[in-house]
Amino acid sequence: MKEMILPEFNSNDEREAVITGKAAKNALLAILILTPIALATMALILTFEGKHPILLTLLIASSIPIAGLITYYFSYRHHYLQ
Predict the structure, then answer these.
(1) What is the mean pLDDT of each successive set of 10 residues along the chain, which is 82 residues long?
(2) Nearest to 20 by CA among 30, 31, 32, 9
(3) Which of 2, 39, 61, 68 would be a feasible disulfide site paired with 27, CB 3.0-4.6 Å?
């Protein structure tokens, strides 16, 4: 069952190591692209929002690693199925 959910669990296959590397690079790229966008959005929210700006900035800040994990998963699946 673990191989169906996490096919990268098989450490004997060199192809899976390459796929994991590509997926990690794509996830890092997504994080590096989304971080300045999120920082600019948070600055605008703190400047122009009147009510509860802290809640919105926390949601934006917590979305960065979640987007990286989602990117990693879909990138891994895409490269694995090719």
Answers:
(1) 57 79 94 95 85 84 94 93 88
(2) 9
(3) 68
